[in-house]
Amino acid sequence: MQTAIDQFRLNIERVRNLGTMYKVLRAQTTEVLDLSDILRAELAMSVSALDHYIHEIARLGMLEAYSGRRVQTQAFLRFQVTLESALQGISAPANDSWLENQIRTRHSYQSFQHPDNIANAIRLISDVQLWDEIGKQIGMNSQDAKQELITIVNRRNKIAHEADMDPSFPNKRWPINDVMVDDAINFIEQIAEAIYAVVL
User: Fold this and answer.
1) 19 and 178 in contact (C-beta within 8 Å)?
2) pLDDT in tens, 84-104
3) Which of 6, 120, 142, 170 is the most exposed, having the fewest neighbouring CB atoms within 10 Å of its CB?
4) By C-alpha distance, which of 5, 71, 11, 81 is closest to 44?
5) Would you say the C-alpha torsion 120, 104, 14, 40 has a positive or negative sign?
6) Backbone phi, then psi, for 143, in 5-degree steps?
7) Across the chain, what does the average pLDDT equal?
8) 94 burial type by CB count under 10 A (0-12 exposed, 13-18 middle, 19+ buried)
9) For residue 85, how many other CB atoms are within 10 A of its CB?
10) CA-to-CA separations, 185 to 16, 47, 177, 178, in angstroms, rounded
């Protein structure tokens, strides 16, 4: 689990380095040079860091559950694997590489960005009422926390899938600023740290 949060922290540090670059460039150039895509990259990368973190914490937690170092949840016990990989597990019970491959394969097409998807991933490793506990950790109503994350993820989706274009005004992108992006990054960091605290 520690490796997952350590990697998340490194990923967020990389995102913040982009923010520093944005601020330095903004101070040294005129407004003629549009630097807003650096902010868009920050936002997209911060959501990606959270998504990757959830993938990793779920994988590592499931491997811990398989080896008896973590309680096996109902979601863990219902996790579907191929018969071929099950036979590999039966023939070499101490080797968990077959399960790791199955987790990576099953999760490879899933994103863990939406609050419900994050909760489903965490159910594989913990029975905690995730968003209630996150709310307590960050001092926020769980529904408000979920809605804030949805808003950030929706903006990331506009950036990633719609070039952040505002359909109401052709050739115009949605407005963005460094305060908005910094707030989003800080919030995502709070969510990841809260998840680590409640599922450890």
Assistant:
1) yes
2) 998 988 988 888 999 999 999
3) 170
4) 11
5) negative
6) -65, -40
7) 95
8) exposed
9) 16
10) 8, 8, 13, 10
Q: Which two tokens stand for residue 131?
A: 């968003």
- Is residue 101 within 8 A of residue 89, CB to CB? The reply is no
CA dihedral (186, 151, 46, 106) positive or negative: positive
Structural domain harbouring 55: 2-199
Nearest-angstrom CA–CA distance, 98 and 30: 55
- In sequence order, what are the beta bridge partners of 165? 173
Is the pLDDT assigned to residue 30 strictly greater than 90? no
For residue 159, give the H/E element and its range: helix 142-162
Residue 181 in this model has a pLDDT that exceeds 90: yes
Q: Which amino acid belongs to residue 62?
A: M
What are the beta bridge partners of residue 173? 165
Residue 5, token pair as written in the block:
């949060």
Contact 43, 154 (CB under 8 A): no
Tokens 């913990």 correspond to what residue? 126
Compute the distance between CA of residue 173 and CA of residue 193 in angstroms, rounded to an integer: 32
Q: What angle do CA 170, 172, 173 make, to 5 degrees?
A: 130
Identify each DSSP E strand in 11-109 by its residue range.
none
